[in-house]
């Protein structure tokens, strides 16, 4: 898709008239008095969480923001492969694929050894290693990503809409209160209600309110970390240039004028540029430097020399200081109180970790914060899991944020360091920068996240049964053919953002689910045994797959298997009519040479079970006959329902 | 996507609450008094035409329908590969891919030789041959397809919305009138305005008003063809069955109970079944038979024996007679008057061709009628083409409709014929049915359409330069890599439904557009020569690619070519800022083994030009240096603009 040719316009580019792109402003309804979850902040973390919670008709969620309406421009734009996998579960990956810029390759530029005031291309590489994800790394305005989440919320059972123009004043928590332990005071900012105070009581409050988070302050936590000493500028521009890689992601290091990270943007014309500005003195702030967009443009022109760069329109720009800061815990429970009390207030996204934007990680990690917390809150609020489950949010995500902070510090330092030159033999070799970028590929794609063993993440005892599906890491999808309708699809796309767990049962070599086979025995156990986690944790009257969704993957070509001989458990009868769900069984896509058993290192002889969390992370790998271990795993955090 | 589990609900299944799926009913605004194009009928032909015309801000279109609002259920559902290619040009293919059932394989069932009252599977084949299109054959409710077109219209520059509750009374044409030769009288059917008469004057009127078309009658044309002698029933049902191929398209022929065409539907649960009912006596009509849905269900149960089939909900059903009928011309100009007068009234879709629905062709051919006429009307109304161009609509589409009628007659006869059996040695062999189905694969995929030489379709003199891109047939896309941003894409997806012509210039083996190369010479000619069709037919002040969009395809791997050395004509400056369009150049996707030059039989030594119409059909194949022939081709129907 091409757009923004005649200037940047926010909103859905498929709608011709910009004024048709956003619905009339919200009616400014008063806040509800009591909710299950109050989310403060409509950024990536808050909206991911809100979209997740909006899927459950019985959970009352309220999301507020200081802004008067949806975000329209600027801010983050990098969308990692892993995030696309999550978007697919939320049902809008295809919209992002269509509208975004795809980062296919990255080029590297360095000073020309022959004439050091010029830059020359020093390398060009694939941005993402082959096979890392079924989705590309893409770039799209954060505002559009938020639009898609808002759309999910609007279409959901709860028709959730944000309450805009609300500023959180403070929070008060009464741990003794059994119903709504947290009370929030908010001030209205919309002109017709300006200054009015609203009180809302909540079971849980989640602060997604950015680096200056009021929620974080209210629970007595602070961001700790490096002070900033480099100023960077960022701008989204429409420009005419002779720089040939203007439509490739490019890392450009000049001899004496600093560095650029250049990121082409959606629509075919716009480009985002991060440009190194001055070094700051200790305790000096960017604001004092009086940096203007003209200074940014002039710096870009110097760095790109000898290429021309003429800016026609600035859609958005900003200046920021690099600083890596982190909160020690992401909830309101002190480290030494974890055994005694339960969390009721959480923080997510920039409220607990801030860093430079140049690695394109911030929005992605923040959304994963929201995705991690969302299904857990839903499981506890719906009485499906013990509330102790909520301790795992801070435990899991703080570690991830720490990795991010460390990565960003290293990457930022490298991009700002002086280059090796005749005058500076101790500087960084440009080739080192490229090597580091490649080495960090899986990390920046968002696929390196790996949760360590816990109540939610099994030990690696049986990891050898599925060597390519790492316990604790995200479920790495692969192509398959659906048995009943021969549809080529991705096994990972069985996952929807619906709070459900999934068990993929990979059958052994001769296992067609015939009587006495291990897959048949597993199905019999799951369907009929009093110890079955599926029946035990599914409330009476709900579809059998509504808490734990079991899918089988066979090794045979799909035309050689007979649907009618399969266990009834894999052809579940659902809904008010008892219709049959035919989408639980898969085979390898042998015709196209994609054998999921080979691709993901599944033990062909034994097969295995892969247990996947609602947020797409692999919780466990178990042998097909590990019935008791499977039951024990779910019993570790889920509550019996019958 | 799974939906309809608890009963059929019309509208976008991503919206949870059915009542949120359709906007409030239209405000019932009066019709405009004068328009460029009046379209009668909001079916597939009418909406395709309306969506196409809505893209042009300066064309005033009005579309009316007798219904009180959008179609909600039933009717056609088959979407051929070729139609998906068109949907992609309209910008909603990805929505159809997501929501539809994919017809991957077709199974065939016949009487069991051992026990003829039972059916057994006799074959199972790929539904579409490999490589025929980048899109699958899919099934989706016609109502949803229409929703997507309505969405295109609503988002367009003209924000076109249908006027519902309007019945056309009659048309009057005054060929002498230079402005609005056609006057239409319509009657309002909406309760608050019932019976009110409205008069609208139009430059052109298009009757997309179905088999009983008032427009057709008003121009004195009639459907000619076979009378019906077979009654078939059709129903969309939610059912529980032991028939194993319920999620595969299946052709089922029983020994003595007739035939079924079974088509799984979107959402994973619903199925459409066409079932043969009684033979009718001569001149007998279906209505007189008093066929009920219970009779349809009972017939299905008998044919599927020994499988059970229990219907839980009937979403829609109907009974129809097979009859193949065709109009001799699709406009208001008599055969012998083509040289003397210009057409002003056209008919499209069921208004000019009716047939059985079982081959899934009707909606597809009707939409192609609308697509064929749309760009021609726009070109004439915008003064870009001579009005004589409009004669080509009837000439091209009547031939296609004739082929459809012939195909349907043969296919319907085959499905209704008695099977070969011990008692009926002259009957049809079930294997013959399967063979015919396979043989007709390209036809039913919609890719067999081939326009014959005319002012719009060149002679095959240079066809050998691109053996896989047949002149007169649809442009068969193939994977490529876009040069400037290394994006893997489909060359055919450069085509949008925007009324533009496209020239794909395939470069010769050593041609990197270097000085003195043939591609460079072509670019120089197109950019600078007074004879250039590109400059000649593009109005002053418009972007250089706004009438004819030229793209180049090189043979080299994309990393070996330098964007900065390419002709300026392939890096056109556009829009109010003169920004550079970087999306005009492509290379083969060698890494994935897709070489478009091999896949489409392009002459590697010489290269060639492939000229593609706005409706995606190949108009011509020419040598790269056939500058004069290219200019002459466009001069044959386009008007000079400067």
What does this structure look like?
Two copies of one chain form a homodimer. Chain A contains 14 helices and 28 strands. Helices cover 23% and strands 24% of the residues of chain A. In chain A, helix 1 packs parallel to helix 7. Chain A is globular, with a radius of gyration of 26 Å. In chain A, strand 5 and strand 6 form a beta hairpin. The first copy, chain A, starts with 33 loop residues before the first strand and ends in a 7-residue tail after the last helix. At the A-B interface, helix 3, strand 4, strand 12, strand 24 and strand 25 of A face helix 3, strand 4, strand 12, strand 24 and strand 25 of B.
Summarize this structure as a short list of keywords or feature phrases.
homodimer; 642 residues; alpha+beta; seven-stranded mixed sheet; 14 helices; 28 strands; 23% helix
* Oligomeric grouping of the chains: homodimer
Greatest interface: A-B, 57 and 57 residues
Measured as a percent range, the helix fraction of chain A is: 10-25%
**Amino- and carboxy-terminal Cα gap of chain A:** 52 Å
Point out poorly predicted stretches of chain A: none
State mean pLDDT of chain A (0 to 100 scale): 93
Taking the sheet with the most strands of chain A, its summary is: 7 strands, mixed
Radius of gyration of chain A: 26 Å
- Strand proportion of chain A, as a percent range, falls in 15-25%
Structural class of the helix and strand makeup of chain A? alpha+beta
Total helices of chain A: the number is 14
Shape of chain A: globular
Strand order of the largest sheet of chain A: 6-5-13-14-15-12-16
The counted number of beta strands of chain A is: 28
């Amino acid at each position: 898709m091409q757009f923004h040719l005649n200037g940047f316009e926010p909103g859905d580019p498929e709608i011709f008239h910009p004024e048709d792109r956003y619905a009339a402003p919200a009616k400014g309804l008063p806040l509800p008095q009591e909710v299950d979850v109050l989310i403060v902040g409509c950024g990536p973390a808050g909206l991911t969480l809100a979209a997740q919670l909006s899927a459950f008709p019985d959970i009352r969620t309220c999301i507020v923001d200081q802004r008067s309406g949806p975000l329209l421009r600027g801010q983050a734009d990098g969308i990692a492969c892993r995030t696309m996998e999550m978007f697919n579960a939320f049902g809008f990956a295809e919209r992002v694929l269509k509208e975004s810029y795809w980062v296919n390759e990255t080029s590297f530029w360095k000073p020309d050894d022959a004439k050091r005031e010029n830059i020359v291309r020093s390398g060009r590489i694939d941005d993402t290693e082959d096979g890392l994800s079924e989705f590309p790394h893409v770039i799209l305005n954060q505002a559009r990503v938020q639009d898609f989440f808002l759309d999910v919320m609007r279409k959901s059972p709860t028709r959730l809409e944000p309450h805009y123009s609300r500023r959180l004043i403070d929070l008060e928590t009464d741990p003794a209160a059994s119903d709504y332990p947290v009370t929030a005071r908010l001030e209205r900012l919309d002109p017709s209600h300006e200054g009015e105070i609203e009180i809302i009581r909540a079971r849980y409050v989640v602060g997604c309110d950015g680096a200056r988070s009021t929620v974080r302050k209210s629970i007595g936590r602070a961001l700790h970390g490096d002070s900033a000493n480099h100023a960077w500028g960022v701008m989204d521009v429409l420009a005419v240039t002779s720089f040939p890689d203007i439509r490739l992601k490019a890392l450009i290091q000049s001899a004496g004028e600093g560095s650029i990270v250049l990121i082409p943007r959606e629509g075919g014309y716009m480009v985002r540029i991060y440009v190194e500005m001055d070094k700051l003195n200790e305790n000096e702030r960017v604001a004092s430097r009086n940096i203007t967009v003209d200074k940014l443009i002039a710096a870009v022109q110097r760095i790109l020399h000898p290429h021309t760069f003429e800016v026609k329109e600035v859609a958005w720009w900003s200046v920021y200081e690099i600083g890596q800061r982190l909160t020690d815990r992401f909830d309101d429970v002190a480290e030494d109180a974890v055994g005694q009390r339960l969390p009721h207030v959480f923080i997510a996204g920039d409220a607990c970790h801030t860093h430079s934007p140049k690695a394109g990680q911030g929005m992605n990690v923040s959304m994963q914060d929201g995705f991690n917390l969302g299904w857990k809150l839903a499981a506890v609020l719906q009485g499906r899991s013990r509330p102790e489950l909520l301790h795992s949010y801070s435990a899991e995500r703080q570690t991830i944020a720490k990795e991010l902070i460390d990565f960003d510090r290293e990457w930022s330092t490298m991009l700002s360091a002086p280059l090796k030159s005749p005058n500076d033999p101790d500087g960084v070799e440009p080739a080192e920068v490229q090597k580091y970028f490649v080495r960090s590929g899986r990390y920046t794609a968002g696929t390196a996240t790996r949760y360590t063993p816990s109540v939610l993440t099994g030990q690696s005892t049986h990891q050898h049964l599925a060597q390519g599906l790492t316990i604790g890491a995200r479920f790495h999808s692969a192509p398959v053919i659906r048995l009943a309708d021969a549809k080529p699809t991705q096994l990972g796309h069985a996952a929807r953002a619906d709070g459900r767990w999934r068990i993929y049962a990979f059958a052994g070599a001769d296992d067609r689910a015939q009587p006495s086979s291990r897959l048949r025995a597993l199905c019999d156990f799951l369907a009929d045994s009093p110890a079955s986690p599926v029946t035990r944790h599914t409330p009476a009257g709900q579809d059998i797959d509504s808490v734990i969704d079991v899918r089988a993957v066979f090794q045979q070509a799909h035309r050689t298997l007979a649907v009618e001989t399969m266990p009834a458990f894999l052809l579940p009868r659902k809904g008010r009519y008892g219709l049959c769900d035919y989408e639980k069984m898969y085979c390898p896509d042998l015709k196209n040479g994609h054998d999921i058993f080979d691709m993901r290192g599944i033990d062909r002889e034994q097969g295995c079970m892969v247990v996947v969390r609602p947020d797409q992370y692999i919780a466990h790998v178990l042998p097909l006959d590990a019935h008791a271990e499977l039951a024990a795993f779910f019993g570790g955090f889920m509550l019996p329902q019958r």
